[in-house]
Amino acid sequence: MRILLLGEYSNVHCTLALGLRALGHSVTVLSDGDGWKNYPRDIDVARRDFSPLGSAAYWWSLRRTVRSLRGYDVVQLINPVFLPLKAERIWPLYAGLRRRNGKMFLGAYGMDYYYACAGEDCRTFRYSDFNIGPQLRTSADISAWEREWIHGEKGRLNRYIAADCDGIIAGLYEYHAAYFPHFPDKLTFLPFPILLDQSKPFRPRTVRDGRLRLFLGEQRGRTQYKGTDIMRRAMERAVSRYPERSEMVHVESVPFARYCELMEGSQVLLDQLYSYTPGMNALEAMARGLVVVGGGEPENYAILEETQLRPIVNVQPTEEDVYEKLCDLITHPEAIPRLSADSRRYIERHHDYITVARRYLNFWSSK
């Protein structure tokens, strides 16, 4: 099967491609590397010149590239805005891809019209990027997303592609909950794929020198939206209270390969305060045996049909709850090896990239 994966979020398509290739399929990944994260890709469409002349040249070059993509059995989009262009520019490119290729699938992996609407209704989620209970959150990011996705051209494009495509794949519980009321017959949930390092035996993490190392990666300009500001304050309080028993590692906007290197010396990762579920960064950390403090609500385990493992230290979206959970880990380091082993087992059971790739193939073939 010839497969084209368009766009990238947090290494999802790159890792999926590895699984599909291992199963004997021909896969092309086209993306801009997800910006500064610089994930691998087969066709690079990163934009480097933002001057008027550079923008015009980029548009013509990208249009030629997309027009050459033909004859694929399956095309999957990472998002309705699957190229680094304004939504208005994507309409004709999508139409051409639809004409020149086989089945078309939409990934529900991040911010889009349906997720924004679900967050804003204050009923779908107890808390989210958009709401805390019945109250809407306010920030510049949220206002921009409302304008672009709910009221703007991105939303119109999203609604069209969702209705037109052959199937929709949600990568997290939240995105499945957002799309299900609208497209129950063409929607499925498939876990994110994670590449497991089998080159050396896995050993659960331990606190060997008496200091629990807490790792927090921050995306510049997205701290309030992700809740990183609150998590950082809670981490600073916990480390200040137990300076002899803990330390923090804080990094900001580093490429993915460097991020993994910096994470390696820690035992605990803090990630995404407002999520019900672990995203790709958290899953990558769990594969390495780190204990994740973040989203691990019952809905996450239910959609995976997981009834035994509970490796994620679930937190509510408040500084005090994060602080208390961190203090508990710092004062009970004997829990780390068990949680570390369970984290790895969780990834092996639900996110192995070969197993996930097979599930994608089955879904694509069913449509």
Describe this structure in words.
The protein is an alpha/beta fold. 44% of the residues lie in helices and 16% in strands. It has 2 domains: 2-193 and 352-366, Glycogen Phosphorylase B (Rossmann fold, 3-Layer(aba) Sandwich), CATH 3.40.50.2000; 212-350, Glycogen Phosphorylase B (Rossmann fold). The chain has helices at residues 12-22, 52-67, 87-100, 113-120, 140-150, 153-164, 173-179, 223-226, 228-241, 256-263, 280-287, 298-304, 319-331, 336-350, 353-366, and strands spanning 2-6, 26-31, 43-44, 74-77, 103-108, 131-132, 135-136, 167-170, 187-189, 212-218, 246-252, 268-270, 291-294, 313-314. Helix 1 packs across helix 15 (353-366), helix 3 (87-100) packs parallel to helix 6 and helix 4 packs across helix 7. The two termini are 15 Å apart.
